[in-house]
Structure formats: C-alpha cells, structure tokens
C-alpha cells in the first residue's frame, strides 16, 4: 500500500488511446481516438472521435478494431478535423500536474505527431508528463516471461478491460493499469514526482530499445538467409535511431526532442 503520502495516481488523470489503419506510426492513419478525463470522486468523462482516414482501412486492421472503410467514410469526420480537435483537447487538459496515461506511448503519440504534421504542418507538443504502463512494467518486472500487450498486462495485474481494441475501452484500461502499478510499486512509481517519473521512463525506454536492438543483431548473426539477416540488422538500426524519441517520434522536419521534463 502507498500509505499516508499522496500519489499522483489519486488523480486527476488523463488517458488516451487511438486505433489506426496499421502498425507503422509514421505512415498509417488515425481511425478512432479517445481521451478520458478522470477526476477524484467523479465518473470518468470519455470523448471519442471517429475519423475518415482518407485511405482504405486494411481488412487486418478492421478485424482488430471493427471499423471498416465504409463505416469510417459514412460516419467519420475528415481526418484533418479529428486530428485538430484531438490536439486541442490534449492541449486544454494536459499540463505538468495532470499525467497522460498512454499504453505503448511511442506508437500512439508518434502516430498523432505524424498526423498533426501531415494535415496541419504543426509539431506535436508534450505539455505534461506521460505514464506508460508498458514501459513501467518492462522496467519493474523485466525478466517475466510472456507477452506484454494490453490484454496480457490487464490479466497479470488483475485489471478490468472492457471492450478491448476500442479506443475508449483501451484508454480506460490503461488508466486502471497506471493506478494499479502506482499502488503496487509506490516507491518506484506511485510516489515519484511526475516530472521525474516522465524522465525515468525516457531513460528506461532507451535502455529497453537498445536491448531489443542487440537481440535483433544476435538473430541476424545466426540467420542463414543473407536477406533476412540484413532485414534484422536494418530493423535493429531503426530501433537504435528511435531510442531517444520518447514519448513520441517526431517527424524529421521537427528537429526537437520530446523526452525532457514537460
């Protein structure tokens, strides 16, 4: 238990999640986004957007989040409108005293940064601290075997996950995970000042990324197929290049970093 010291997890909190057309945050597009505002003693307030991404939504992506190209075109707002509204909502609610809980933040926030630049030539601004349960779990329990995706972590930490693979359901589950980790690890997480926790996650992400890149290099050294070996080495190089880009990979034009104190 945390004890008498108040934790940032006692609120207020924000939680954010996006569903997309694929798994590459630099080229794939936003389909849905949800921002959850959690205030002590109140029911969470959820705002959800549906976008027409302007491109076909692949069948594999639709199978995950349930939104087809036809549905997005019929019911979604233009992507440029959604991206602007999401950025404005974040700017309004997110500040140094209110953390933004994002599971696998480098994906969601990098995708948002890419979309903001694509549609509006605006840079993404980190205006408050980020709490990423995936990054935290990998640091706190680094030798545990098994998967580390949202469903796996919710099961491991006994956190409720409703409507998995919807942006609203995943955002709420992310906030619950952040709260549970703060409760379970008060010294390492729950009672750490938010700016310090944000910076620590940037450092942990860097270490985790370089470790994974080393693993890819070892796979490449053992690969029999030269083409496969080169593919693994290229991926390792890409991982290392992005190691300092936390919590978001900025478009190359931005020329700024995002991992300092918010």
From TrEMBL:
InterPro entries: Ribonucl_H (IPR013520), RNaseH-like_sf (IPR012337), RNaseH_sf (IPR036397)
Sequence ranges of Basic and acidic residues compositional bias: 227-243
GO CC, alphabetical: cytosol
Signal peptide: none
Exonuclease domain residues: 12-187
SUPFAM superfamilies in UniProt: Ribonuclease H-like
Region described as Disordered: 227-262
CDD domains linked: DEDDh (cd06127)
Gene Ontology molecular function: any one: 3'-5' exonuclease activity
Keywords, ordered alphabetically: Exonuclease, Hydrolase, Nuclease
Protein name as it appears in the record: DNA polymerase-3 subunit epsilon
Source species of the chain: Streptoalloteichus hindustanus
């Amino acid at each position: 238990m945390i004890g008498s010291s108040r934790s940032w997890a006692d609120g207020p909190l924000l939680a954010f999640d996006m569903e997309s057309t694929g798994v590459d945050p630099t080229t794939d597009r936003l389909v849905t986004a949800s921002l959850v505002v959690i205030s002590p003693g109140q029911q969470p307030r959820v705002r959800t957007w549906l976008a027409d991404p302007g491109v076909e939504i692949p069948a594999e992506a639709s199978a995950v989040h349930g939104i087809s190209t036809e549905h997005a075109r019929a019911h979604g707002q233009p992507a440029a409108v959604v991206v602007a509204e999401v950025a404005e909502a974040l700017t309004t609610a997110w500040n140094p005293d209110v953390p933004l809980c994002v599971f696998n933040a480098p994906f969601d926030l990098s995708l948002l940064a890419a979309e903001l630049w694509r549609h509006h030539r605006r840079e993404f601004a980190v205006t408050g601290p980020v709490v990423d349960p995936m990054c935290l779990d990998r640091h706190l329990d680094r030798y545990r075997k098994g998967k580390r995706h949202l469903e796996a972590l919710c099961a491991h930490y006994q956190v409720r996950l409703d409507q998995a693979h919807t942006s609203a359901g995943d955002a709420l589950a992310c906030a619950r995970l952040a709260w549970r980790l703060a409760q379970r690890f008060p010294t390492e997480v729950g009672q750490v000042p938010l700016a310090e926790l944000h910076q620590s996650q940037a450092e942990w992400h860097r270490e985790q990324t370089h470790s994974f890149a080393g693993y890819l290099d070892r796979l490449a050294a053992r690969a029999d197929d030269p083409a496969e070996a080169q593919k693994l080495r290229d991926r390792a190089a890409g991982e290392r290049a992005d190691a300092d880009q936390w919590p978001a990979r900025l478009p190359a034009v931005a020329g700024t970093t995002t991992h300092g104190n918010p």
